[in-house]
Design brief:
246 residues; alpha/beta; three-stranded mixed β-sheet
Length: 246
């Protein structure tokens, strides 16, 4: 969800001001300060990250929702990390053995990604309503049969700490690069597919046909656009809206 794909010209133009991002870190060169809302021009995570599914998730929503409705995104992501990085009570033990570059990313979030996510979410609740949680992770947990249980733990903590009702806040989880693209972690999709059995209000977003880069690990910009659009279409359906015909 941090975004690896190179941002292209089309990704930074024509963005409706109703689509906003709550800045997670200071990006002085882009004129953005943390804890403030800005039009969601990528990057939506940290200052030098790439295109993410969240970009076209938000675009899809604003294009299909009434004009009075605004969409806000909070993106706290750590590239290459296991889901353990967001475990509220035990992230320190995982972080202790993490490589230096990962620790540097975490440092930008004050040393605690989960706490940073909750802090931003509480700030967002002052001006809006949390309607869903997006997840795109799993490559680093490939073949981890406990992954769904760990995701449920993170989701349950978010629901509790933000005083949300799980039946009103779905979890949308995207597949990693698909087997049809020779994804090197495609086996993880079988585990991701079982998430709704563990988190009742969760939905799996297909990555079928979403193109990837030469490493067969990361999506291309085109792949991100398609995956993000699917996230958006799923959320629209859950909100009771239909996608408008082009």
């Amino acid at each position: 969800m941090e975004g690896n794909a190179r941002i292209q010209a089309q990704d930074s133009i024509g963005i409706d001001s109703r689509f906003q991002v709550l800045q997670a870190v200071d990006c002085g060169d882009k004129g953005r300060l943390k804890d403030n809302w800005y039009t969601a021009i990528p990057p939506l995570a940290r200052c030098t990250t790439g295109l993410t599914p969240a970009d076209y998730f938000g675009r899809t929503l604003v294009a299909n929702l009434p004009e009075k409705i605004r969409i806000g995104i909070i993106n706290v992501s750590v590239a290459g990390a296991k889901i353990e990085i967001f475990e509220k009570d035990s992230y320190q033990s995982y972080l202790a053995t993490a490589p230096g570059w990962m620790k540097n990313i975490v440092a930008e979030y004050g040393g605690n990604p989960y706490d940073r996510l909750v802090t931003l979410a509480k700030l967002a609740q002052k001006s809006g309503v949390i309607k869903g949680i997006l997840l795109h992770q799993g490559e680093s947990n490939t073949n981890d049969t406990l992954w769904t249980k760990k995701v449920k733990g993170v989701y349950d903590n978010l629901i509790k700490d933000l005083k949300l009702k799980p039946r009103k806040v779905p979890l949308l989880a995207g597949e990693v690069v698909n087997a049809d693209q020779s994804g090197i972690c495609a086996s993880m999709n079988k585990i991701i597919a079982t998430l709704p059995q563990v988190v009742s209000n969760s939905y799996v977003i297909s990555s079928a046909g979403c193109t990837c880069s030469r490493d067969h690990l990361h999506f291309t910009a085109e792949g991100c656009r398609l995956l993000g659009t699917r996230y958006g279409e799923t959320m629209l359906s859950l909100l009771g809206y239909k996608v408008k015909e082009n």
